[in-house]
Amino acid sequence: MTAVRSQMLEVVRDAYPETFEKLGPSKPLGESVFSGRTPHPNEVLNLFVQQGLTSALPMAYYMATRRGPSSLMDRSLPRNATLSPEVLQSAITGLMALRELELNETHRMIFEPKGSRPCSASNCPSRTPTGPAALEAYRTAFDRIVGSSQFGTKVLQVPEFYEDCGGELQCFGPGICGGCVERWESGHAELRKEAWAALPRIFGLKD
Ligand SMILES: [Zn+2]
Fold first, then answer.
1. How remote is the CA of residue 159 from the centroid of ligand 1, in Å?
2. DSSP secondary structure letters along 118-184
C-alpha cells in the first residue's frame, strides 16, 4: 500500500506542481491526470484537503476556482464534491484576488505598456497606440485573454493569439503585428509566473 500511495503522490505532484518552474510543457495538468472518470475539481480539492497534500493545494484551488463561483457552489454535486464553508471561503476570496490580478495586469500590459515606444512595423495599428484602430485591436486582445465564462479565471492559461483564418494561421485581431503579439506573449508569461507564485498566499495557505 505504501508503494502504491507514494506512486500516486508522484503522479499527483506532477499534475499539481508546487511551482511554476516544475510545470512541464506537455504533461497533463489537474484533474485530467486521473484515469477513468474525470473527477470534478471540487472533489479533488476536498480529497487533497483531507489528505493534507499541502504542496498540491494551490493548484487544486486554482483548478476549482477557474470555473467560477457557480461551479464552486454547485448544489447539484455529490457530497464529496461539495466544499466546506472554510474551503469555499478561501476559494472565493482567492478567485476574486486572482481575477483582479488578471484584469489589472492584462489591462496594463495591453493598454499602458511600460517603457515601450510605439510600434514601428508598417500597417500595425500600434503605430498610433491611442488611435481608434489600435484601441479596437487592444479591446479584442483584452477580451480574448481575460474573457472567461461564469466569471472564472484563465490567468494561468497560455492565451491563443493566433487563429486559423481560412488556411492562414498568422492572423490576429485587426492587423496587430507579430512583434506586438510577441510582447504580449512574454508579458503574459510574466503574469502567469507572478500569479503562480502568489497562489499559496491568495488561497490563504501561507501568510
Ligand atoms: Zn506592432
1. 18
2. PP-STT-GGGSTTSHHHHHHHHHHHHHHH--GGG---TTSPP-----BTTB----TTT--HHHHHHH
